[in-house]
């Protein structure tokens, strides 16, 4: 999904020589995409310096740069830059380490420094390990923005403390900075910065820019003349322009397809024959349809946007987002979008698989007192669907019984991805202002109403509320409106007060899943499912050791009221018999 009318553009200069050494163990590379990848993944520049004490240093630097550039762009575009790059670098480091152990008898044979910049939208993401460097020249002033991972000993010699391939675990520096047009990044190996002072580099750049290739070549030449004893490599990246908000162009992209009219049974839309309307709200219409161009009797569900929002860019973007998300997910517990790549569209709509069954809400009405085992099985299926989303760095943000379907085989599927938060897209500058999107207040985590960003634990909160409601017919914090949620004090009502048949250990799991503070909830869905399956003694002990006021506030105040009433009655009796 394109975010802005104007694209990020850079100029790149690169130069590397062996210097006085017999071979060049430095390596560099860059990828400057011009298609939609520029929005989703950004521009990537990387430099590496094979460790001189490593027998395979030359191979290590080449493998590190080439594989990083290839693998980074192969990661899901829903992933954040940090998650994608660190996943790739972690796997790459482990491969270098294991291969080095095998090929060079455990002598760290494939080791290299590594520094990379990913420029995405309006942000620079920096990844660094070793003693290569990244500098920033901004408004004529040069600053080193990485830290050398060197250890100094008493003999005045420096030793490399961190590098790729020297250990199975990789500790890599990461930080970000906001971009400005005219920013210039310089990546160097120690063959440059060990002999050239910052003032010399700064003066050269200020004199020669915007000729970035000439800058790289001159800096390498100066380092050689100054007596550099190492390979010499330099990359110069000048930010020519940044993405600019062009609302007109952006809305034109969103609205390139018209909204379809209200559809009637028997009408055909791009090969889909409408059978009947399933649901209609002020925001959308949902129809059951038959695909006349696909498999015989194949039924699908078509969702069309409401004409009420045909001039609302935020609504249209969210409508398109739902299909974008569904295309990138693969789980038996998530609704699947129907592939229409070869079929042109004449209107704006989405097509998903048809699930013959009912919503979880309808099932709960028909089954008001389900067994704990059935609730656990339901939670487990929902958790599997959420896990598939969370692995893609997607947060559903609107999980509730109405957004869960149950088919004839009792398989649950999560639907409605219109409120989903995608980490990769959240990094991209947009012309639209996105507020914190939340679903139904009673199922939404409290942090949303504090203006905080949702995490996977926010979805776990919603899952806990659903489990609580299935077992009790109530909500742990009662019915809540968005206005109430902003000022409400979230005090958990034990599930056993509504349903005494619920085991204490199940109640403890529900309380943890729906805790008002995300840091005290389950970290992953599988932990919640496990604690619904068997007693977690440590969780029970923690609950029992808490004061009664915290453990059971309703019971505490009821008990206190009874004591107060008894004291009053005794005092009245004493006064009357005095």
Describe, in short, the structure shown.
The chain has 578 residues and is of the alpha+beta class.
Strand order of the largest sheet: 1-12-11-6-7
Total E-strand runs: 22
- What's the overall geometry? globular
Specify Rg, calculated over alpha carbons.
30 Å
Low-confidence stretches: none
CATH fold assignment of the largest domain:
Phosphatase 2c, domain 1
β-strand amount: 15-25%
How much helix is in the residues? 25-40%
How many angstroms separate the termini? Answer: 84 Å
CATH level 1 class label of the largest domain: Alpha Beta
For this entry, what is the oligomeric state of its chains?
single chain
Structure classification: alpha+beta
- Main sheet summary: 5 strands, antiparallel
Average pLDDT number: 89
> Judging by the overall fold, what is the CATH architecture of the largest domain?
4-Layer Sandwich
Question: Could you characterize the architecture of this molecule?
Answer:
With 578 residues, this protein is α+β, with helices and mostly antiparallel strands. It starts with 8 loop residues before the first strand and ends with a helix. The strands form six sheets. A five-stranded antiparallel β-sheet has the order 1-12-11-6-7. The longest helix has 25 residues, at 553-577. Helix 2 runs antiparallel to helix 3 and helix 16 (504-513) runs antiparallel to helix 17 (525-533). The model has no long low-confidence stretch (mean pLDDT 89). The protein has four domains: 9-242, 4-Layer Sandwich (Phosphatase 2c, domain 1), CATH 3.60.40.10; 248-353, Phosphorylase Kinase, domain 1 (2-Layer Sandwich), CATH 3.30.200; 357-545, Transferase(Phosphotransferase) domain 1 (Transferase(Phosphotransferase), domain 1), CATH 1.10.510; 554-578.
């Amino acid at each position: 999904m394109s975010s802005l009318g104007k694209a990020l553009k850079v100029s790149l200069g690169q130069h590397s020589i062996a210097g006085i050494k017999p071979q060049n163990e430095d390596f560099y590379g860059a990828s400057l995409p011009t298609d939609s990848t520029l929005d989703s993944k950004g521009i990537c520049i990387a430099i590496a310096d094979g460790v001189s004490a490593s027998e395979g240093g030359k191979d290590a630097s080449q493998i590190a740069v080439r594989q990083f550039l290839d693998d980074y762009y192969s990661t899901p575009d829903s992933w954040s830059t940090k998650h994608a790059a660190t996943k790739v670098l972690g796997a790459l480091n482990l491969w270098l380490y294991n291969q080095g152990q095998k090929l060079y008898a455990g002598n760290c044979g494939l080791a290299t420094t590594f520094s990379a910049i990913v420029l995405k939208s309006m942000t620079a993401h920096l990844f660094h390990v070793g003693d290569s460097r990244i500098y920033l020249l901004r408004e004529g002033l040069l600053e080193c923005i990485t830290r050398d991972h060197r250890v100094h000993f008493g003999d005045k010699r420096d030793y490399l403390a961190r590098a790729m391939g020297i250990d199975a675990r990789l500790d890599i520096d990461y930080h970000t900075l906001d971009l400005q047009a005219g920013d210039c990044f310089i990546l160097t190996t120690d063959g440059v910065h060990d002999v050239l002072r910052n003032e010399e580099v700064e003066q050269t750049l200020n004199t020669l820019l915007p000729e970035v290739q000439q800058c790289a070549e001159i800096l390498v030449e100066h380092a050689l003349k100054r007596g550099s004893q190492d390979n010499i490599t330099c990359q110069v990246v000048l930010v020519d322009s940044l993405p600019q908000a062009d609302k007109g162009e952006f809305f034109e992209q969103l609205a390139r397809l018209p909204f379809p009219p209200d559809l009637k049974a028997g009408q055909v839309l791009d090969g889909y024959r409408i059978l009947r309307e399933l649901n209609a709200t002020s925001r959308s219409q949902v129809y059951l349809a038959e695909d006349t161009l696909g498999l015989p009797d194949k039924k699908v569900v078509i969702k069309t946007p409401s004409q009420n929002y045909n001039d609302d860019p935020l609504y249209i973007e969210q409508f398109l987002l739902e299909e974008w998300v569904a295309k990138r997910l693969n789980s038996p517990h998530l609704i699947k979008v129907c592939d229409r790549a070869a079929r042109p569209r004449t209107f704006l709509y989405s097509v998903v698989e048809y699930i013959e069954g009912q919503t979880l809400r309808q099932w709960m009405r028909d089954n008001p007192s389900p067994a704990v085992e059935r609730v656990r099985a339901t939670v487990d299926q929902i958790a599997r669907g959420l896990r598939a989303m969370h692995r893609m760095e997607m947060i559903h943000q609107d999980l509730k019984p109405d957004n869960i379907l149950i088919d004839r085989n009792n398989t649950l599927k999560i639907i409605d991805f219109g409120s989903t938060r995608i980490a990769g897209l959240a990094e991209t500058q947009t012309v639209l202002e996105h507020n914190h999107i939340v679903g139904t207040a009673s199922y939404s985590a409290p942090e949303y109403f504090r203006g905080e960003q949702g995490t996977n634990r926010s979805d776990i909160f919603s899952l806990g509320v659903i489990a609580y409601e299935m077992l009790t017919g109530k909500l742990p914090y009662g019915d809540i409106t968005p206005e109430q949620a902003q000022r409400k004090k979230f005090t958990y009502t034990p599930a056993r007060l509504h349903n005494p048949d619920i085991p204490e250990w199940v109640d403890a799991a529900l309380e943890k899943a729906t805790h008002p503070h995300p840091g005290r909830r389950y970290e992953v869905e599988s932990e919640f499912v496990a604690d619904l399956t068997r007693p977690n003694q440590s969780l029970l002990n923690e609950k029992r050791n808490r004061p009664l006021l915290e453990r059971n506030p309703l019971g505490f105040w009821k008990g206190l009221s009874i004591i107060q009433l008894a004291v009053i009655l005794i005092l009245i009796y004493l006064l009357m018999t005095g």
